[in-house]
Amino acid sequence: MKCEIIRDLLPLYIENLCSEESCREVEAHLASCGRCRAEYRNMTAEVPVAETDEERVQKILKEADLFINSKKEVERSFVDRALRVFNLIVFCLAAVCNVLAAAVVIFGYGLRYPSVYLDYKGFLQIFIILYALCPTVISLVNLCIMKRYPGRKKILTRVLSGVLVPAVLAGLIGTVSLFLIPPFCSATFRITAYMKVDKDVEDSVRAAAVCFPAAVPEAAEAAVYHYSKFSTLFEDSWEMEAGWNLPKQEFESEKKRISELRALSRKSETKSGTEYTVSGMVYPEGVSVTVIFDDAAGRIEYRAYFSGSK
After folding, report:
1. Of residues 235 and 197, which shows the higher confidence score?
2. In this protein, which residues make up the domain named Putative zinc-finger (predicted)?
3. Range 147-175 burial, b when 16+ CB lie within 10 A, else e
4. Would you call the peptide bond into 166 cis, given omega within 30 degrees of 0 as the criterion?
């Protein structure tokens, strides 16, 4: 073929639009003609070789996969950030609520000697504390896992984040219960705190004081003292115990005073071996009082208990 015809066919040849016979003719001519071969090189340098339909489809599918994967990665990244922010917010709010709830209970109930109260209804108190601490602990654990293993354990962090929602509800129940049945009491064993009680129970303690000495006797030995008060939204209860050894003369004098005490209602006196016990009630407050005398040891033990609704 002439060069003019070959040059006209070159664009079609480059685009893979020529028939097989025309392609053979063009290739044979390019092999023998330097001018047409140079023209072909110029044209292919400026125009990229056309892709086949299969290559074009594969390229489109690859681009689609890249787009889908990048979209999923963005979504996962967004979810991870959202979970991290959610856990951080829950931890901060829950921790603040725990501290405020404890402070409100301690100061709101006027606890003079704040202590954790687990003697009465012990399991209930433990569950109240655990419920109130649930969101704080779970969110803190989740944040630690996210920080230590940022690219791993995602299933665990998402499970914990899912559990965090009911944990928040449990925390609210626990916090409300803290105000109704607080796991705190006012308690002391210090002998220097003798008869120094919380203000809200001063009246009932004053009633019981008729059986207790006004102060620890100077001659007292091996003196012990215990006072505790527990309050809920519905009731107050307290107990007080004191004991010491006295010289025989003071021991007999105190024994006589208690046996002749008229402030006790439903008074009962019992003797067992060397022990002489006087018990009764002090009204109108309804304080239960017991005094035990051990003649052999010269020891006196005073006990008072009160429980009443508000």
Report:
1. 197
2. 3-37
3. eeeeeeebeebeebbeebeebbebbbebb
4. no
Contact status, residue 279 vs residue 291, Cβ threshold 8 Å: yes
On whether both 70 and 37 belong to a single domain, the answer is: no
- Point out which residues pair with 221 in neighbouring strands: 245
Please say if the pLDDT value at position 288 is more than 90.
Answer: yes
Mean pLDDT value across the chain? 83
Structure tokens at 141: 């654990």
**152 and 218 assigned to the same domain:** no
Instruction: Tell me how far the alpha carbon of residue 40 is from its chain's centroid.
Output: 77
Candidate from 158-172, 251-265, 267-281 with smallest mean pLDDT: 158-172
90 burial (CB, 10 Å; 0-12 / 13-18 / 19+) is buried
Residues 180-204: b if buried by 16+ CB within 10 A, e if exposed: ebbbbbbbbeeeeebbebbebbeeb
Residues 62, 24, single domain; the answer is no
Q: Which residues pair with 186 in a beta bridge?
A: 114, 229
In total, how many domains does the chain have? 3
Does residue 80 sit in the same domain as residue 124?
A: yes
Indicate the range of 143-152, 190-199, 245-254, 285-294 predicted with least confidence.
143-152
Residues 176 and 235 in one domain: no
Are 222 and 244 in contact, with CB atoms under 8 Å apart?
yes
Q: Helix-strand-coil percent breakdown of the chain, rounded to 5? A: 55, 20, 25
Shared-domain flag, residues 63 and 177? yes
Q: Which domain holds residue 7?
A: 3-50
Q: Clarify whether residues 175 and 195 are in a common domain.
A: no
